[in-house]
Amino acid sequence: VQLVESGGGLAQPGGSLRLSCAASGFTYDTYALGWYRQRPGKGRELVADIITPLDITNYSEFVKDRFTLSRDNTKRTVYLQMNSLNPEDTAVYYCYLSNLGGVENWGQGTQVIVAS
To answer: What is the CB neighbour count within 10 angstroms for residue 50?
Structure first.
């Protein structure tokens, strides 16, 4: 399984960034594909994911109405549009893929820094 992340970087408070993750090399029929993040000194937490084939998207409370998760027609690439960023969103963002049966795959992580 390969998870190729792109995006991230530096944004000002109130700004926007877009992350993408392309997943390949798997044969799961049912899976969750999305993003976790790990803020400095904190544990890893779910940001958003989408479950195929149910087409259910989950968002954590702290990103609702600010972040939007979408995917392409292959359902193997997801995009996380992050708007209204604030310093508390500073974290390493990890793409993850789970077969919802105990198998998890992680990307290498991409740094997001929100600072003026």
So the answer is: 19
- Name the token pair of 65: 């109405």
Q: At residue 11, does pLDDT exceed 90?
A: yes
pLDDT band for position 28 (cuts 50, 70, 90): very high
Kindly tell me if the per-residue pLDDT of 76 is higher than 90. Answer: yes
Pull the structure tokens for residue 89. 């969103």
Distance between CA 21 and CA 23 in Å, rounded? 6
Over 54-114, what HEC string results?
Answer: CCEEEECCCCCCCEEEEECCCCCEEEEEECCCCHHHCEEEEEEEECCCCCEEECCCEEEEE
- Cβ contact 74:63 at 8 Å: no
| Position 64 confidence tier, pLDDT thresholds 50, 70, 90 | confident
d(C-alpha 95, C-alpha 23), whole Å = 9
Spatial CB neighbours of 103, under 8 Å, sequence gap ≥ 6:
28
